[in-house]
Amino acid sequence: MRAGTVTLALMVSVLPIGFAGCNACYNSPSSNPQQLREQTAQATATLKDDAKAVGQGIREGLTRPSPDKPLNLNSASKGALMSLPGVDDAAADRIIAGRPYASEHQLLDRHIVSRDEYNKIADSVTVGK
Fold it and tell me: Which of 23, 28, 76, 103 is most buried, judging by how many CB atoms fall within 10 Å of its CB?
């Protein structure tokens, strides 16, 4: 026999065993329809959460500050704000709560951030137009 024929013959003989194994797992007594629905719902919820996290990461990546493109304080997501040096969860929440801003200096004028925090991010933020 040629190699291709041997491979095909081997696949044809092993394939039914693989299907029988899958069928045994699917129809096992511990896998009743309600359990399958619950497992499917849980897997779907996990997948949905993962997809949201990926989408948020992409959005944050697109709005992440760079020397060429400062971060807009009026529209940046919390995650993007937290990517700024020295901006933690609480500071990001304060920045978001204080919107809209007419100038970057309003972060200081409104006591949203300290002078030290502002000095760390001053070159990386804008209020946009």
Answer: 76
